[in-house]
Amino acid sequence: MSLADLSPAEGNHVQSVIEQRLTARAAQQGLKETVTIEWRGQQMPIEVISMPLDLLYYNPATHRIRAQRTLDPERDRELEIDPFGDAGQAYLHSLLMGDPASPSRVDPAFEALKADLEEHGQTEPGITTRQGVLINGNTRRAALRELNHQYMRVGVLPPDAGMDDRQAIELSLQLRKDHKRDYSFMNFLLAIEERIRANRKPAEIQRDFRIRPATYEQAVWILAFVHEAIERSTVEVNGGKASLRLVDFETHQGKMEELYKAYMKRKVTDPDAAAALREQRLLALALDKSKTDLRLIEPDFAASYLKDYIPQNGTATAPAPARTIPGTSIKAAAPSQSVQALREVADRVLKARTIENLGPAAPVPLLADATQTLDAARTAVDDALDKAGKNGRVLKRRLGPSERLSDANDELELCLKAVADARATGNFQAEDLDEQLAAMRANLIKLAQLASRGGYAPGSAAGVDWLRAVASLPEAEDQQ
Predict the structure, then answer these.
(1) pTM exceeds 0.85, yes or no
(2) 220 exposure class (CB count in 10 Å sphere: 0-12, 13-18, 19+)
């Protein structure tokens, strides 16, 4: 049974209090506060009542902190065992206050919410089940508790609200433009994954999350990439297993989105190059390199700049077996030896990061080995990135003139269309171009002179020869 199916031990008591307050509310005269929710495909108002904070529970299945729960595996296990007990609820409270990327620090957005509640009070009600489990408003309850408030206004769901209803309501409220605090990157992906595991069709998920098919495919790929990285980071330590956590990937959204696009672009024409790119960028990502750094990593990055750290002549301990494509009997080619070598290096670094995260909890020899592995990897990758950056700047300077000329050609094509449109409507006057064409002629002459210098041999480049002819450049200027 999932956490979403569970109810608090005191749920019956809470339900009786809610029922009494709803009954009392119905007997009152005048306008009654309601909040509108999406209920089984249509908008429906539900009654709002005031409830003691102590009779409301954080929702252990909320998507807002799903990834952050992996921060402390021991406390997360306690939460799984007793989600509505004091320890589990205290863990949820701390995570709801925390920065998604670093849950041990209080999120500035949470402090802003507290300040807003203190100044203006609660302007929007939360949403609760009849047993007091908050479907929406978990973070508001945490802020109200920090402000020592005693009550919270909540809309009450119908008695027959099931797990699917609760998830749909949370998602619809989260996707409203005026919502106070967005899902973090990883929690958004996990919410999509939850729908996939519930056998929802891709088109339905895309509609629910208001995303395009391309965005959906990217999200599925990235989440599979993260799960694989976590699995590959697993180490046996202290009689158990440890690995990287979902929260460790929270700050890498842009890097993984760019990797997905670069990987898919190469996969069609060169699967091995795509795999090499994926492993090398995973290595850099595991070392917390910046998005700008990762952009320097192309499929040949290791072959060009990491030869001493990752020899390219096939260092894999064993050939990788051919893989069967899931759901078919088709055999996919095994990765090349160079890709397998990259994979083994990435695995070592991922495992070392796991041990580094454990800190003093890891055995001293393991921690020392992990530190040595990471130091060597960081030194090698930093040096390689520095070389790649310098070469990239040189290449950029070399290709700069060509890129500028390409931009000029794009503008010239727009000019051709503009002339054609003007002629078609009888509004063209050739004389209108005279001033700009004179300026272009002067610039073409200068370009021809600059392009011909430095030992250019006539006949070696048809384009430059044409430019020289257009500019009527004398032969005497060839070698100037």
Answers:
(1) no
(2) middle
Residue 42 pairs with which residues in a beta bridge? 39
Every domain of the chain and the residues it spans: 3-182, 226-322+333-397, 434-480
| Residue 356 tokens, joined | 């580094």
Looking up tokens 């408003």, which residue turns up?
137
| Residue 205 φ/ψ, nearest 5 degrees | -65, -40
DSSP character at residue 60:
T
Which residues of the chain are under the pLDDT cut of 70?
1-6, 174-182, 312-333, 392-399, 455, 473-480
Token digits for 382?
């930093």
Long-range contacts of 235-241 (CB under 8 A, 24+ apart): 235/351, 235/354, 235/355, 235/366, 237/355, 237/358, 237/362, 237/363, 237/366, 238/361, 238/362, 238/363
Torsion sign, CA atoms 46, 49, 53, 55: negative
Q: What string of DSSP letters covers 90-130?
A: HHHHHHHHEETTEEEEE-HHHHHHHHHHHHH---S-EEE-T
Distance of CA 313 to the CA centre of its chain: 34
| Rounded Cα distance, 454 and 343, in Å | 46
Which long-range contacts link 233-241 to residues 24+ away (Cβ below 8 Å)?
A: 233/347, 233/350, 233/351, 233/353, 233/354, 234/351, 234/354, 235/351, 235/354, 235/355, 235/366, 237/355, 237/358, 237/362, 237/363, 237/366, 238/361, 238/362, 238/363
- pLDDT of the residue at 294: 94
* Distances, alpha carbon 393 to alpha carbons 77, 92, 360, 387, in Å: 50, 48, 42, 10
Given this model, what pLDDT does residue 67 score? 92
Contact (CB, 8 A) for 222 and 103 = no
